[in-house]
Design brief:
- The protein is α+β, with helices and mostly antiparallel strands.
- The protein is built from 5 helices and 8 strands, in the order ββαααβββαβαββ.
- The chain has an 8-stranded mixed β-sheet, sandwiched between helices.
- The longest helix is centred in the C-terminal third of the chain and has 15 residues.
- The relative contact order is 0.16.
Length: 159
C-alpha cells in the first residue's frame, strides 16, 4: 500500500514503525480516557507480524511531514463468512476533520474487497464519537457480540 490523501502518505507498516505507531494509538486512547493495554487489546500493535502479516491482514501507517499521525489495519476473523475485522484505526487530533478518516476507511474497504472478503467487522467504544459517526455514515450496521473489554459497540458491513 502506498496511497496519498492530500499531503498524507498511507503506507505499509515497517518494523521501524512499531514504537511510533504504538505511541500514536496510546496517545489517542488516552485522549478519550481509554487505557493502553499492551498485554490485552493492544498486544497486536506490538506483534504486527503475527497478528496481521502472518494471517493475511495488513497494517498501515499514515505519515504527514515524515511523522506517523495515524494507523489503520485489518485481519481475518472467524465471526462470519470470509470476514475481517478493521482494527487500530486511529488519527491524532491534529489531523482529524480533514476527510482523512473517511479516505482511510475507503482504502481499507477496497483492499479487503480485493482480497475476496465479504464481511467487515469493527469494534469501538461509544466515547470515540468521531469513529462511531464515521462507521454509521458509511454503511456499517450495529451488531452484537463485542469481544474487546474496552469496547461497547460492534458493527458489520457486508460487501
Amino acid at each position: 500500500m502506498n496511497s496519498y490523501y492530500k499531503d498524507f502518505l498511507i503506507r505499509n507498516w515497517q518494523k521501524s514503525d512499531r514504537t511510533k505507531a504504538a505511541a500514536v494509538i496510546g496517545y489517542v486512547l488516552s485522549e478519550y480516557g481509554l487505557g493502553w493495554e499492551p498485554k490485552g487489546a493492544d498486544r497486536d500493535v506490538l506483534e504486527v507480524e503475527d497478528f496481521y502479516l502472518a494471517t493475511g491482514g495488513e497494517f498501515w501507517v499514515i505519515e504527514h511531514q515524515s511523522q506517523i499521525v495515524g494507523t489503520g489495519a485489518y485481519y481475518p476473523v472467524k465471526r462470519g463468512e470470509k470476514a475481517v475485522e478493521i482494527r487500530k484505526m486511529y488519527l491524532l487530533s491534529s489531523v482529524r476533520g480533514l476527510g482523512l478518516g473517511k479516505y482511510l476507511l475507503q482504502q481499507l474497504e477496497t483492499a479487503i474487497a480485493f482480497r475476496g472478503f465479504q464481511q467487515i467487522w469493527i469494534e469501538t467504544a461509544s466515547v470515540l464519537v468521531e469513529a462511531v459517526k464515521l462507521y454509521e455514515n458509511n454503511g456499517y450496521l450495529p451488531a452484537t457480540g463485542v469481544e474487546t473489554a474496552r469496547c461497547d459497540r460492534v458493527y458489520v458491513k457486508y460487501l
